[in-house]
Design goal:
Length: 145
Amino acid sequence: METATETDAPVQAVRGSPLRRIGCGIALTLWFLLLLTPCIMVYAASQGEITIPQGDLPGQSIRLWMIQEARLQGIGVASTSVLTIDGDTRCLQTDNRFLLWRGNEPPVTYCECFRRSADGAKWDFISSAEDACTAQTLQSDEMLP
């Protein structure tokens, strides 16, 4: 006759803490992003830029591009933000920053203003300026008729 011993009892798996699982999930996501980096670089090199649309204004996107000039080499990054003047008038501020391994270039900010006649209509260009968008600047420069 067989007798039951402690080793014959079913083994229960010890579950890890939720923080450990979250940490593993984050580490796995970062690992996949690291593995995709060569694909992203090949795409950027072949196309010249990567653009991610952010809204319906012309040029409203995040843009990453390669800079390959004689005195400048590196990567440029442009991000946008919107200043709403009224329901049909908006200004798009674009901030350009540069990560250069050859040369030096300061960040550049410029503002472009658009207006549309009705909801869903095409945006018409009004004006542009090389500076940050502010309501006071727009009104004092009479950029908006």
